Amino acid sequence: MTSVPSTRTTQPIKANSFDELLACDDQHFVSSAYLTILGRMPDPEGMNYLLSRLRRGISKTQLLMQLRISQEGDVYSVKLPGLEQAVRKYRLERTPFIGWFFQKLHGSETNHPLERRLRAIENKLSLLNDENARRLDSIEAKYLSSGLQPQSTWTSQFDLSDQMRKLTPRAQNIFFQLKTAIAEHGNRNA
Fold first, then answer.
1. 0.90 exceeded by the pTM?
2. Are residues 38 and 119 in the same domain?
């Protein structure tokens, strides 16, 4: 059976920049944030706490700042390009009376309910994208394990397995478009 690689990594990363951490989503974000900022994997309580806040739409910057200024974060004292600047900016923007001015000046994220809701939706979309990628990889693995080889023309690009033949032509087209888009997205993020 041929193994099909996943289009997105689920392994936590030790990020090289603040922006690299911001590009992670959901559990991958929390695990990578802990590994990068605290030098360890999250304990179950920490994972659940930060993940629930992230899924409720709390900004990633706020969660990273929370880890960085914790006692453990002060002890580990990671030097991550962009993190300290983001923490200073975030603190300045939360200063009473003048913080709103800096938020408007920098066009920064706020904790307005609408922004939180949009961030929560964005996280859910990322989870759905990951689930679709896993499902498509599973279908493709079954297809490849059947021993069928791709054909030369686009309309018959793949000699479809029995499961794929049960799909309507439109569903087959959507499958291949999604697979192509996910592969392109994975290449851009690599």
1. no
2. no
